[in-house]
Task: structure prediction
Amino acid sequence: AFLNENAEKINIFSTISFNNKEEIIRTTIDQTYFDLIGNPKGIFEQIRKDENQRNSFLFNIGSDFYIDKNKTLTTSFLLNTNNKNFNSNLDLNDFDAVRSLTRSAHRNVKDIDEISTMELFLNYTSKFLKEGHQLSFDFKFDSTVSENAADILENATSPVFENIIQKVAKNQNLDNFLFQLDYALPLSETKKIELGYKGVFKSYKNNFNVSQFDESLLYFVTVGGFKDVINYDENVNAMYGLYTATKGKFSYSFGLRAEISDITVQNGESVNTIHKNYTDIFPSASMGVELGDGSFLSSSYSRSISRPHVSQLNPFISFNN
Result:
């Protein structure tokens, strides 16, 4: 549902949506392992069926305040919740080089995930008398909380009968702050200069633990190497300048961007901290010409930096298989 009310001094907009997704995935894996001279060492087979259900709910409300004909204030609030209920069944078989069965097991995984995201946004735009002359400011804060729990039961039938019971707990928190200031100044009808600042501040925490039931101790014991707390803080301050111009059918632009990065990665279990602080310069340039008949020829150069996404920062993804 999309709702909108536009008045002389204010425009109010809202979105409400619900999504349900159900899917069945069947996967077959057949692997053969070889030694260095190409002789088979072993064979692994897996037949897997996943029955996945996911529900999501989104609510967004915002407004545009027309302070006067040249000044606008925009605000919005967004709430997005997701929950998933995944059930996986895996048949696992290991064979030796002559295809004699060495181990057979059935693994069932019940995986439940709750994810909620909240976002606040603010924009102020002021237009001046000259066309294209304006100043704008953006602020955005979003926070995502994810809680994941999985119960795993593995029944081995060969070479011995045994039951393996495991639990997975994974909690993630991600906070992002954005501050952005942009200023555009037309020097003439064909020339313009743009200046700006952008600050992005990210804080990510991942706490995960995998435990297995010990029949002799009668309680769950952490599986070695599968318990940790990861903290990642990333602060980036960037400033830029851009000059664009056109002359007849020819257009060009030159830009320069400076980024100051401050990054801290901390491993909670081993108390291992890595800190990085560096400054980079990113030039850019483009040229273009209209060739007629609606065709356009352009050439551009730019340089940027690729920083890790949350999925790349997470050292532990899944223990299902």
Remarks:
- The first strand starts at residue 2 and ends at 6.
- The mean pLDDT is 94.
- The helical segments are 310-313.
- The chain has one helix and twelve strands.
